[in-house]
Amino acid sequence: MFFTMTKKFDYKKYWIDRLELTGEKLTGVGHKRFNDVANHFMYKRAEDALVKVLDRYHIPLERSSVLDAGAGIGIFSGFYVRKGAKVTAIDLSKGALDMIKKRFSKIQTKVMNLAEPSSFREKFDIVHCFDVLYHIVDDAEWKKSVSNLARLSRQYIIVHDKYPYMGYQLFEKGHVRVRQPFEMQRLLKKEGFEENRSIPTHLLYVRPIFYPLVNTFPKLMYLLDSALTKVGFSFLKTSYVRVFIKKHL
Fold this sequence. Notes:
CATH topology: Rossmann fold
Largest sheet: 8 strands, mixed
Low-confidence stretches: 1-6
Mean pLDDT: 88
Protein backbone atom coordinates (compact mmCIF):
# COMPACT_ATOMS: atom_id res chain seq x y z
CA MET A 1 0.00 0.00 0.00
CA PHE A 2 1.19 3.55 -0.73
CA PHE A 3 -0.18 6.88 0.48
CA THR A 4 0.86 10.27 1.76
CA MET A 5 -0.90 12.95 3.76
CA THR A 6 -0.69 16.69 3.24
CA LYS A 7 0.28 17.16 6.92
CA LYS A 8 3.42 15.07 6.43
CA PHE A 9 1.77 11.97 7.83
CA ASP A 10 4.38 9.21 7.97
CA TYR A 11 2.59 6.81 5.63
CA LYS A 12 5.54 4.43 5.39
CA LYS A 13 5.70 3.99 9.16
CA TYR A 14 1.91 3.65 9.33
CA TRP A 15 1.77 0.70 6.93
CA ILE A 16 4.90 -0.99 8.22
CA ASP A 17 3.64 -0.79 11.81
CA ARG A 18 0.15 -1.92 10.84
CA LEU A 19 1.39 -4.94 8.91
CA GLU A 20 3.86 -5.91 11.61
CA LEU A 21 1.08 -5.74 14.18
CA THR A 22 -1.40 -7.84 12.19
CA GLY A 23 0.94 -10.19 10.33
CA GLU A 24 -0.88 -12.30 7.75
CA LYS A 25 -4.33 -11.35 9.04
CA LEU A 26 -6.50 -9.67 6.42
CA THR A 27 -7.24 -6.85 8.83
CA GLY A 28 -3.71 -5.63 8.16
CA VAL A 29 -4.33 -4.87 4.51
CA GLY A 30 -8.12 -4.92 4.38
CA HIS A 31 -10.83 -2.89 6.06
CA LYS A 32 -9.96 -2.11 9.68
CA ARG A 33 -13.63 -2.20 10.68
CA PHE A 34 -14.09 -5.74 9.33
CA ASN A 35 -13.11 -9.05 10.88
CA ASP A 36 -11.00 -11.50 8.87
CA VAL A 37 -13.99 -13.38 7.44
CA ALA A 38 -15.64 -10.14 6.32
CA ASN A 39 -12.37 -9.04 4.72
CA HIS A 40 -12.10 -12.40 2.98
CA PHE A 41 -15.44 -11.91 1.24
CA MET A 42 -14.61 -8.28 0.50
CA TYR A 43 -11.55 -9.44 -1.42
CA LYS A 44 -13.57 -12.26 -2.99
CA ARG A 45 -15.82 -9.69 -4.68
CA ALA A 46 -12.76 -7.92 -6.06
CA GLU A 47 -11.33 -11.22 -7.31
CA ASP A 48 -14.66 -12.08 -8.99
CA ALA A 49 -14.51 -8.80 -10.91
CA LEU A 50 -10.84 -9.35 -11.79
CA VAL A 51 -11.69 -12.76 -13.28
CA LYS A 52 -14.46 -11.15 -15.36
CA VAL A 53 -12.04 -8.53 -16.66
CA LEU A 54 -9.45 -11.13 -17.61
CA ASP A 55 -12.08 -13.23 -19.38
CA ARG A 56 -13.82 -10.33 -21.11
CA TYR A 57 -10.64 -8.94 -22.66
CA HIS A 58 -9.02 -12.34 -23.20
CA ILE A 59 -6.01 -11.35 -21.13
CA PRO A 60 -3.69 -14.36 -20.87
CA LEU A 61 -1.97 -15.08 -17.58
CA GLU A 62 0.09 -18.19 -18.18
CA ARG A 63 3.70 -17.10 -18.70
CA SER A 64 2.68 -13.43 -18.64
CA SER A 65 4.69 -11.00 -16.52
CA VAL A 66 2.70 -9.26 -13.78
CA LEU A 67 3.67 -6.42 -11.48
CA ASP A 68 1.58 -6.37 -8.30
CA ALA A 69 1.96 -2.72 -7.27
CA GLY A 70 1.17 -2.31 -3.58
CA ALA A 71 1.01 -6.03 -3.00
CA GLY A 72 0.52 -6.01 0.76
CA ILE A 73 0.62 -9.61 1.98
CA GLY A 74 0.16 -10.96 -1.53
CA ILE A 75 -3.54 -11.72 -1.83
CA PHE A 76 -3.50 -11.06 -5.58
CA SER A 77 0.14 -11.97 -6.10
CA GLY A 78 -0.88 -15.50 -5.14
CA PHE A 79 -3.86 -15.38 -7.50
CA TYR A 80 -1.59 -14.61 -10.46
CA VAL A 81 1.00 -17.22 -9.49
CA ARG A 82 -1.71 -19.89 -9.35
CA LYS A 83 -2.72 -18.90 -12.87
CA GLY A 84 0.81 -19.45 -14.15
CA ALA A 85 2.03 -15.86 -14.35
CA LYS A 86 5.52 -14.63 -13.54
CA VAL A 87 4.95 -12.19 -10.68
CA THR A 88 6.92 -9.31 -9.22
CA ALA A 89 5.50 -7.75 -6.03
CA ILE A 90 6.36 -4.30 -4.74
CA ASP A 91 5.33 -2.68 -1.47
CA LEU A 92 6.54 -0.23 1.18
CA SER A 93 6.72 -2.96 3.80
CA LYS A 94 9.62 -5.41 3.71
CA GLY A 95 7.80 -7.47 6.32
CA ALA A 96 4.80 -7.87 4.05
CA LEU A 97 7.00 -8.83 1.12
CA ASP A 98 8.79 -11.39 3.29
CA MET A 99 5.39 -12.98 4.00
CA ILE A 100 4.78 -13.20 0.25
CA LYS A 101 8.20 -14.73 -0.38
CA LYS A 102 7.63 -17.28 2.36
CA ARG A 103 4.45 -18.54 0.70
CA PHE A 104 5.44 -18.06 -2.96
CA SER A 105 9.16 -18.53 -3.44
CA LYS A 106 8.96 -17.84 -7.19
CA ILE A 107 7.69 -14.29 -6.72
CA GLN A 108 10.28 -11.55 -7.04
CA THR A 109 9.89 -8.80 -4.43
CA LYS A 110 11.14 -5.25 -4.06
CA VAL A 111 10.60 -2.62 -1.36
CA MET A 112 9.43 0.42 -3.27
CA ASN A 113 7.22 3.50 -3.10
CA LEU A 114 5.09 3.66 -6.22
CA ALA A 115 5.41 7.46 -6.40
CA GLU A 116 9.20 7.32 -6.56
CA PRO A 117 11.33 6.71 -9.66
CA SER A 118 11.71 3.01 -10.27
CA SER A 119 14.91 1.11 -10.91
CA PHE A 120 12.96 -1.34 -13.08
CA ARG A 121 14.10 -1.26 -16.68
CA GLU A 122 11.71 -3.94 -17.84
CA LYS A 123 8.04 -3.55 -18.62
CA PHE A 124 5.34 -5.94 -17.50
CA ASP A 125 2.49 -7.38 -19.53
CA ILE A 126 0.09 -6.51 -16.73
CA VAL A 127 0.41 -3.92 -13.99
CA HIS A 128 -2.05 -4.74 -11.21
CA CYS A 129 -2.82 -2.06 -8.60
CA PHE A 130 -5.65 -2.86 -6.19
CA ASP A 131 -6.75 -0.63 -3.30
CA VAL A 132 -3.69 1.59 -3.51
CA LEU A 133 -4.32 4.80 -5.44
CA TYR A 134 -7.13 6.14 -3.27
CA HIS A 135 -4.74 6.01 -0.31
CA ILE A 136 -2.50 8.58 -2.01
CA VAL A 137 -4.00 11.85 -0.87
CA ASP A 138 -1.25 14.12 -2.18
CA ASP A 139 -2.07 15.10 -5.78
CA ALA A 140 1.53 15.30 -6.98
CA GLU A 141 2.38 11.84 -5.61
CA TRP A 142 -0.86 10.42 -7.00
CA LYS A 143 0.00 11.70 -10.49
CA LYS A 144 3.53 10.31 -10.25
CA SER A 145 2.12 6.96 -9.13
CA VAL A 146 -0.33 6.78 -12.04
CA SER A 147 2.43 7.75 -14.48
CA ASN A 148 4.64 5.01 -13.06
CA LEU A 149 1.89 2.46 -13.63
CA ALA A 150 1.87 3.47 -17.30
CA ARG A 151 5.64 3.51 -17.60
CA LEU A 152 5.91 -0.01 -16.21
CA SER A 153 3.11 -1.52 -18.29
CA ARG A 154 3.58 -3.05 -21.69
CA GLN A 155 -0.12 -3.62 -22.37
CA TYR A 156 -2.59 -3.68 -19.46
CA ILE A 157 -3.19 -1.69 -16.27
CA ILE A 158 -5.83 -3.18 -13.96
CA VAL A 159 -6.90 -1.03 -11.01
CA HIS A 160 -9.32 -1.55 -8.14
CA ASP A 161 -10.46 1.89 -7.07
CA LYS A 162 -13.11 3.60 -4.96
CA TYR A 163 -15.97 5.27 -6.79
CA PRO A 164 -17.07 8.72 -5.55
CA TYR A 165 -20.53 7.64 -4.43
CA MET A 166 -22.87 10.06 -2.71
CA GLY A 167 -21.95 10.67 0.90
CA TYR A 168 -18.47 9.15 0.82
CA GLN A 169 -16.99 12.46 1.97
CA LEU A 170 -18.74 12.01 5.32
CA PHE A 171 -16.94 8.77 6.09
CA GLU A 172 -13.65 8.71 4.19
CA LYS A 173 -11.06 10.60 6.22
CA GLY A 174 -7.35 10.72 6.85
CA HIS A 175 -5.48 8.53 4.43
CA VAL A 176 -8.23 8.16 1.82
CA ARG A 177 -9.01 10.47 -1.09
CA VAL A 178 -11.53 9.43 -3.71
CA ARG A 179 -11.11 11.10 -7.09
CA GLN A 180 -13.44 11.44 -10.04
CA PRO A 181 -13.04 8.64 -12.65
CA PHE A 182 -12.04 11.03 -15.43
CA GLU A 183 -8.91 12.15 -13.55
CA MET A 184 -7.11 8.82 -13.95
CA GLN A 185 -8.60 8.31 -17.37
CA ARG A 186 -7.19 11.64 -18.56
CA LEU A 187 -3.72 11.01 -17.15
CA LEU A 188 -3.42 7.52 -18.61
CA LYS A 189 -4.73 8.64 -21.98
CA LYS A 190 -1.74 10.99 -22.19
CA GLU A 191 0.45 7.94 -21.54
CA GLY A 192 -1.18 6.04 -24.42
CA PHE A 193 -3.74 3.97 -22.49
CA GLU A 194 -7.47 3.82 -23.18
CA GLU A 195 -9.93 2.80 -20.50
CA ASN A 196 -12.34 0.01 -21.33
CA ARG A 197 -15.54 -0.90 -19.53
CA SER A 198 -15.22 -1.10 -15.75
CA ILE A 199 -16.79 -3.77 -13.53
CA PRO A 200 -18.38 -2.93 -10.14
CA THR A 201 -17.25 -4.86 -7.10
CA HIS A 202 -18.95 -3.57 -3.96
CA LEU A 203 -22.39 -1.99 -3.79
CA LEU A 204 -23.61 -2.26 -0.20
CA TYR A 205 -20.73 -4.18 1.34
CA VAL A 206 -18.45 -1.26 2.24
CA ARG A 207 -21.12 1.33 3.06
CA PRO A 208 -20.74 2.25 6.74
CA ILE A 209 -24.43 1.72 7.49
CA PHE A 210 -24.01 -1.97 6.61
CA TYR A 211 -20.80 -2.67 8.60
CA PRO A 212 -22.62 -4.53 11.42
CA LEU A 213 -24.37 -6.79 8.89
CA VAL A 214 -21.13 -7.39 6.99
CA ASN A 215 -19.30 -8.50 10.14
CA THR A 216 -22.21 -10.73 11.21
CA PHE A 217 -23.27 -12.13 7.83
CA PRO A 218 -20.31 -11.58 5.48
CA LYS A 219 -21.13 -14.33 3.01
CA LEU A 220 -24.75 -13.24 2.79
CA MET A 221 -23.72 -9.63 2.09
CA TYR A 222 -21.20 -10.87 -0.47
CA LEU A 223 -23.94 -12.83 -2.23
CA LEU A 224 -26.27 -9.84 -2.05
CA ASP A 225 -23.75 -7.57 -3.76
CA SER A 226 -23.15 -10.24 -6.40
CA ALA A 227 -26.88 -10.62 -7.05
CA LEU A 228 -27.54 -6.87 -7.18
CA THR A 229 -24.76 -6.45 -9.72
CA LYS A 230 -26.22 -9.17 -11.94
CA VAL A 231 -29.73 -7.70 -11.97
CA GLY A 232 -28.65 -4.20 -12.91
CA PHE A 233 -28.00 -2.28 -9.69
CA SER A 234 -24.42 -1.41 -10.67
CA PHE A 235 -25.23 2.28 -10.25
CA LEU A 236 -24.93 1.64 -6.49
CA LYS A 237 -21.23 0.82 -6.83
CA THR A 238 -18.82 2.10 -4.21
CA SER A 239 -15.76 0.53 -5.84
CA TYR A 240 -14.88 -1.04 -9.14
CA VAL A 241 -12.22 -2.69 -11.27
CA ARG A 242 -10.94 -0.56 -14.14
CA VAL A 243 -8.91 -1.85 -17.08
CA PHE A 244 -6.71 0.34 -19.26
CA ILE A 245 -5.26 -1.04 -22.47
CA LYS A 246 -2.23 0.31 -24.34
CA LYS A 247 -3.01 1.79 -27.72
CA HIS A 248 -0.74 0.38 -30.42
CA LEU A 249 -0.39 2.95 -33.20
